Amino acid sequence: MERYQPCCKEEEEFLRNYNPGQFPSIAVTVDAVIFGISRDSAENYRKLDKQSLKVLLVKRTDYPYKDYYSLPGGFVLEGETFEESLQRTLENKTGLKNAYSEQLYTFDGVHRDPRMRVISCSYISLLDTRKARIKDAVWVELEEVSKLAMAFDHSFLIAEAVKRLRGKLQYTDIVFHMMPEEFTISELQSVYEIILGEKLLAAAFRRTIANKLEDTGKMTSNAGHRPSRIFRYKGREC
Amino acid sequence: MERYQPCCKEEEEFLRNYNPGQFPSIAVTVDAVIFGISRDSAENYRKLDKQSLKVLLVKRTDYPYKDYYSLPGGFVLEGETFEESLQRTLENKTGLKNAYSEQLYTFDGVHRDPRMRVISCSYISLLDTRKARIKDAVWVELEEVSKLAMAFDHSFLIAEAVKRLRGKLQYTDIVFHMMPEEFTISELQSVYEIILGEKLLAAAFRRTIANKLEDTGKMTSNAGHRPSRIFRYKGREC
Prior knowledge:
The structure is a homodimer of 238-residue chains. Chain A is an alpha+beta fold. Helix content of chain A is 26%, strand content 25%. The first copy, chain A, contains six helices and ten strands; from the N terminus they run H-E-E-E-E-H-E-E-E-H-H-E-H-H-E-E. The relative contact order of chain A is 0.15. About 4% of the residues of chain A have low confidence. Chains A and B meet through helix 1, strand 1, strand 5 and helix 4 of A and helix 1, strand 1, strand 5 and helix 4 of B. Strand 1 of chain A pairs antiparallel with strand 1 of chain B.
């Protein structure tokens, strides 16, 4: 956005004397709900149903909520966009670089933080866990989150992010951020099933997804399995 | 959210001595992109194609951007949730009460406002223009917005809101907020067409929308028109 030009001397004067303190200021954090799907190693490729949706958490080292788990995130600094703040914080707290992310929601509860009024602009990220290198952060199965001591309203943030992720699965191509470049249709279907928490009919799934995929011409060659076609995502943006 | 309880004396001490000024504070506004569809009066009911998507704007009376058009909105006050702030501001600036709204996006540009850093949490509202009583605000046709002098990044906010509205039309029941309680399928189709900016095939539209509607058993009786069935929205939430 280009720099604002006052229209006249009077407005220049107005801006020079403007007291920013006349409206309350609020501290702003960005917090990332980072989803990944754990994948089994080649040795137990038959146990597809053991895969699960996970979320990346960090353990807090300071008050408040010291030793509680929280989403990776931090305060937005002067002159920083949310996206810049997010990427800086993620790299610091989890080692992740250039994670794909999109804004989820801004949480505005008045008493979210005991230190002061803090609003949280939350982002959803999706990762292919095989590519992502993580440090100082842990992947926690979604079902386990409710059993952990979670900081702030982050359990609620995660629940809202799961709802959004499930919705977006139906009407966007967001899922391909979690996929390797090449995959079989049943691998893709199993990712859908893990996120949605329900089994899908293979024929119907194939029909709805087909126009998003491109056949690589290759076939899988896992011993003990019938070979399957290998596809890639056809969309330009991913 | 329940009030936070420090775990120990040490944390009590930490919170008592916490300096909220160590992280930058940012002023926060809520801004509403309020959509309505102008409807023709009974006299010219044949001119369905003259309906248009409109957005509700107010004229700024103060610097900066004095005399420019802007979305109705205002600063979030101490102890106020975004929704409370939105309803207060809308009532003050447009006379609207209890408008349905949902969060669109938080705009975080560093130089959005020449006074100070201000982020805007924007909301989408949809109104049945026949029910809404408006004061001090004007309905502007979407196509006319680009010809107006618009304050801040509000043209951009409106463009983003239109994209979201078009998307949500496809996978949610949001449209019914713009409809009267009872309507014909062709009235509903024309609202879809106005928002999407394209003609739809009547048979296909009827098929996709049918399961959301309930037949009232009544028929229209406009002179010069074949009577049409009158429906209402079947969903509980609207």
